[in-house]
Predict the structure.
Amino acid sequence: MTDISLLPEVEAFLARRHGQYIDGQLAAAPDAAAIDVINPSSRKVIASVHQATPAQIEQAIASAHEAFTGVWQRTSPARRGELMNRLADLMHARREELAQIESLSSGKLIGLSRAFEIDYSIAFLRYYAGWATKIHGRTMSLSLPSANGEQYTGFTLRQPVGVVAGIVPWNFSIMIAVWKFGSALACGCTAVIKPSEFTPLTMLRVAELAVEAGIPPGVLNVVNGNGATVGPAMIAHPKVAKITFTGSVPTGTGVGVAAMQAGLKHVTLELGGKNPAGFLRDFPVERTVDGIIEAAYLHQGEVCASAERFYVHRSRIDDVLESLHRRLATLKIGSALDENAQFGPLANAAHFAKVMAFFDKARAQDGEIVYGGTAAPGDGFFVQPTAILARSQADAIMTEETFGPVASFLAYDDEEEMLHYMNDTRLGLTASVWTNDLSKALRLVPRVEAGTVWVNMHNYIDPAMPFGGVKSSGIGREFGEAFIEHFTELKSVIIRY
Ligand code: TXE
């Protein structure tokens, strides 16, 4: 198995001195500490990125604020949409370059980087671009009596909230950033994006393309650095009006608290899950196994929407696990840049250590390792795709998010028990129900506690479908029309005549 050759422009990009992208320009601060970017397939350093200094964070936010009150406000909604579509065109033209940088820094299989990370990012960007001209208030009929025959007319304006700070994790470094700045720009806001310190490269390239597309300098800025220093400085800044965050539950909860303390700022939080998939008794074994592979192992399980808890009827569980074992054994594990690999490395050393620790926890709690449960050969952060039969619903592998390729199983005896298990968590991002009996599915869907419930599928997202969590999985919704509410203020205007 061999890696594809890197494009010359990717080699040239990696060799640059990286830092931030502020006011339409690359800005490295050579005195600032640098973070090494590691290729998860080889553990080799591929580039280094200077962290943003406090002065650079200030500049980035000031530049976004100036653009918000100036050039971007003067840009008509139609023109905003046009410019965003032009960025989508440039991303399409640079698809391979962006995909290679993404795979090199995140461990995402190159096919997935092309077809999911880049192509979906383009689709999302075009979707948001379409909304730019369709954001509007409403006219109301006012009914309170007037004393002297005067009349009133009332209407609402939807106005952009201002500068948006977008804090992005390492699993989809372009797509999740697009969800944040695409929403912001369509509504007339400007953005400062902070990528994860593990994957700081791709957004620098996207920000350059944005200026090439004609999006004015200052409208989209990128600052890099450790979350614990750069993040709080962005949230606390008085010129930041809104924070939109995707990441872990503990960090996101802290972000929410900080946003409130910084002056009740708008906040959208898309956090983790411990998502369940419940297979009803009627669902055939081989289709169950197809469903488990779709739900658990995409991008090595590093997908917030993926399922980690699987409930299978007791009469079927042995057959399902036996067949799953056979299927997992055929997956080709390899480098993210190997087009023949079907399963890549985990994204970084800390995450690798976390997933390995889960294998130990599962063994310590007498979970039965059906397949995997160990590191896989290779220089990178490789682990085996793993399936574990839990001893009980209280086991760590049934309650704590691994964010890795670890499917944990429990048998159930009746559907009420399955539903109880599915909802027995403080999280609620996604869930899936699998059955050929549509009326059963439709009766179960309203009772499943999750922001998205799929039937006979998992991990499908679409720009038109609102996405977000219930319970501790987050606040607010991204995509669909729902995003507009989170990036605009509603102003009431009343006129007497
Ligand atoms: O996430 P963090 P990490 C989960 C997954 C993973 C775990 C840790 O379980 O193992 O989170 O990953 C920035 N103020 N998910 O450490 O800490 C940080 O720099 C402001 C689920 O990468 O949540 C990064 O840009 N920002 C998830 C972003 O927050 C701060 C995707 C996310 O980092 C900050 C990824 C602070 N105090 C991991 N501290 C999902 N839901 O998709 C850090 N950050």
The first helix runs from residue 8 to 14. The mean pLDDT is 97.
